[in-house]
Amino acid sequence: MARNTAVPADHNAPPITRQLAEFVASHPSQGWSDEVDREAVRTFLNWAGCAVGAARHEAVDAALAAVQMLEPAPQATLFGRPERVDMAGAALLNGISSHTFDFDDTHLKTIIHPAGPVASAAFALAEHLGRSGRELLDALVLGIDVACRMGNLMYPEHYDRGWHITGSTGTLGAAAACARLLRLDAGQTAMALGIAASQPVGLREQFGTMTKPFHPGGAARAGLLAALMAQHGFTASPRALEAPRGYAQVLSTKCAWNEATDELGQRFEISFNTYKPFACGIVIHPSIDASIQLREQGVLPEQVERIELRVHSLVLELTGKKTPTDGLQGKFSVYHGCAAGLIFGRAAEAEFADEIVRRPDVVALRDKVTAMVDDRIDEASADVTAVLSDGRRVHVFVEHAIGSLQRPMSDEALDAKFFQQSAPVIGDAASRALIDGCRRLAMLADVRELSRLAAG
Amino acid sequence: MARNTAVPADHNAPPITRQLAEFVASHPSQGWSDEVDREAVRTFLNWAGCAVGAARHEAVDAALAAVQMLEPAPQATLFGRPERVDMAGAALLNGISSHTFDFDDTHLKTIIHPAGPVASAAFALAEHLGRSGRELLDALVLGIDVACRMGNLMYPEHYDRGWHITGSTGTLGAAAACARLLRLDAGQTAMALGIAASQPVGLREQFGTMTKPFHPGGAARAGLLAALMAQHGFTASPRALEAPRGYAQVLSTKCAWNEATDELGQRFEISFNTYKPFACGIVIHPSIDASIQLREQGVLPEQVERIELRVHSLVLELTGKKTPTDGLQGKFSVYHGCAAGLIFGRAAEAEFADEIVRRPDVVALRDKVTAMVDDRIDEASADVTAVLSDGRRVHVFVEHAIGSLQRPMSDEALDAKFFQQSAPVIGDAASRALIDGCRRLAMLADVRELSRLAAG
């Protein structure tokens, strides 16, 4: 029987469930700057391109085969595939595909990939309801604000403990976005957040397996259903997020309550969203960027005796796989990342293919990379030195990688990234039309204008 | 960016994901004593009766309305309702109804209600696949073993921290049972457990709301989908349960690894399952039992000046609501429980109806109950004294309540409990036939023989 072991509890937390619900339910449409709206379009576009790009991956095939066992109604579109499934299945599957190549967006303050759970749930619901692009964008901004604010509140303790924060906060963001699209009032929205709070999804142990991209998909599916249940009167605790045995205190010892509501409605977390130029975890990006710069300075792989890498300990903790044996493992290997950057001058999905990760020259160069932990170097930076066979040393220090807030990808680069992923799956013409549709999202009277294009 | 806060981690945990998967995949059918098999039938029967009994509750109505937004295929039966939904929806909804009245089974070592997640997922899948009653019973025994062993491993720290352990371990039990029904091999079963590990469901803050019974339902739905995904090749970490950033270490500081495998295949946790005679949380049962015994000793409500209750602190922590205003809150009020026991001599669902909780004589008697914490008294016990207006004191001490392992409900009492819940929903004849069908479960060539009866 139970013993009452002492668990410290904060009984005086502010009513953030209610506050966030009121915000989501009542904040005016487009109640933010043009810059915020522009970032929402970029977030949606990047998400859509990633979802199309991985649509034929075996992880999506496997999950779709499972969903098809449920004989789903053809309610919603799968990006990059002709099959249609019910809203919950589409939220799951688009969430999986959008994160499969680790090529999606990143809220750098928390390492949350917010579009995966939020856009996947919101698009499926908006499509089924025939909502406008404007309403979808509003839901995206507000849903991402909820997910990332809850992330700010718990980060880094929650993440360090082992939660994959994208999925654990993603259920809340997805529920918030769907509540907005369903036009729930503040009370119902609080219930949606409450039902979602009981369903955090994601353990970091799953990194390197298909269950990592499952996390945003599972969160999208759970959040969508939570909102639908709230719409029909299902109840939850109105203090589900902040109570002593509620979401934040159960999942994190750090609970900075002010993060939920500081500058609420003034500062939007989607403003801090970034997009990856490289198809792997964000912590390797500075090292890849530095390796590409070495290449641009004329360093050739065959000249290299060794590459000395100095990085923050987190880089090796997350991506320290020395001998990756397939593409998925390659994404968790800063060694492979450096080799790919130097050999190919890029690190898109193709550079993480199984055959590339196993290619003898790539393996040989990878084996020449030595990594040293130096916690004086920020996680956003990398210090790379190529030692050449003639004794020369070529040094590059990257403070902020391309794709960071300080060095954002341009709209053109984002479109090119989309096309590069999408064209092999749905063809050039549909890709261009879908990019154009995403760019015009705010003007679309019905988001279903994107459905046919997205399916390819 | 991330700071590496120190989180203690056990890097030497035994490979319990693999061990449990091998056990689930390869343990022989009915590879246990007749007593274990008998308890499995009792567990199934009690679950079915509870699910039918609450089938018309507004929580089930609300969740069903949400599920119907997905236009589900009519694959599986809802106990006590004519509607049919897909397997995932049926797992969710039967899981909700089976726990709505807090009248289901309890594994007392962990306060897990194992049938809710495990039987709800397993029946939906077995029905769709047309499996035999024997296979369903095997899946139930093995799934419950996985859920409760994982509970033993983490209890009480995991529960004290705020997890509703029924849902958090229930996803694993549901996944295990479904993997068995799908006849997955050990490797696939490990993947099913791994996918499920990323989806713990349930916060204790939700107690007193519809989201409490959502927990076993959500766990059933998540576990079922995890098994279907594993069947189609979806991957997860093969160390998802035991790794430093896996399930147990993320969700609990107590990780008694030996609990996963001690006497595995010899001792079955379903042997320790119990069934509630009263429609509320188990910790109030000794107090209700004592109040009923006061009534049997001739104490009349109108004679009572006050009732002095001495209980373990957990009783008040969980069920200390002094002034419940509806039936659901009444279930978390030991004060109401005592009043109901003394006035009615029972505490089934009817005694937790809104109008009973608000009835003036019930409220008046409830207000005469004073509760004192005495941690020398076990949580399984209660010490109750009625002080009468003539000065007499009538004392009852209940060491183990009726329904406990020490004083189990008889088969006849379980059948009567089933009938009492079921008859108002599906009628007398169908109830009797369904009880008979559950009792013959091991002999059924196809569990669908129960479907028509269960729908009513």
CATH architecture of the largest domain in chain A: Orthogonal Bundle
Instruction: Give the percentage of residues in beta strands of chain A.
Output: 5-15%
Structural class of chain A: alpha+beta
CATH topology of the largest domain in chain A: 2-methylcitrate dehydratase PrpD
Separation of the first and last Cα atoms of chain A: 57 Å
By CATH, the superfamily of the largest domain in chain A comes out as 2-methylcitrate dehydratase PrpD
Please give the largest β-sheet of chain A.
4 strands, mixed
Identify the overall geometry of chain A: globular
- Strand adjacency order, main sheet of chain A: 6-5-7-8
- CATH class membership of the largest domain in chain A: Mainly Alpha
Residue-averaged pLDDT of chain A: 96
Q: Can you count the beta strands of chain A?
A: 8
Helices and strands of chain A, in order, run as HHHEEHEHHHHHHHHEHEHHHHHEEEHHH
Name the largest protein-protein interface in this structure.
A-B, 80 and 80 residues
Question: What's the SSE blueprint?
Answer:
The structure is a homodimer of 456-residue chains.
Chain A: H1 16-26, H2 34-53, H3 58-68, E1 76-77, E2 84-85, H4 87-100, E3 105-107, H5 115-129, H6 133-154, H7 157-161, H8 165-181, H9 186-197, H10 211-231, H11 247-251, H12 258-261, E4 273-275, H13 285-296, E5 304-311, H14 313-319, H15 327-330, H16 334-344, H17 354-357, H18 360-366, E6 369-373, E7 382-388, E8 393-398, H19 411-426, H20 428-439, H21 451-455
Parallel strand pairs in A: 5-6
Antiparallel strand pairs in A: 1-2, 3-4, 5-7, 7-8
Helix pairs in contact in A: 1-9, 2-4, 2-19, 3-4, 4-5, 4-10, 5-6, 5-8, 5-10, 6-8, 8-9, 8-10, 9-10, 13-16, 16-18, 19-20
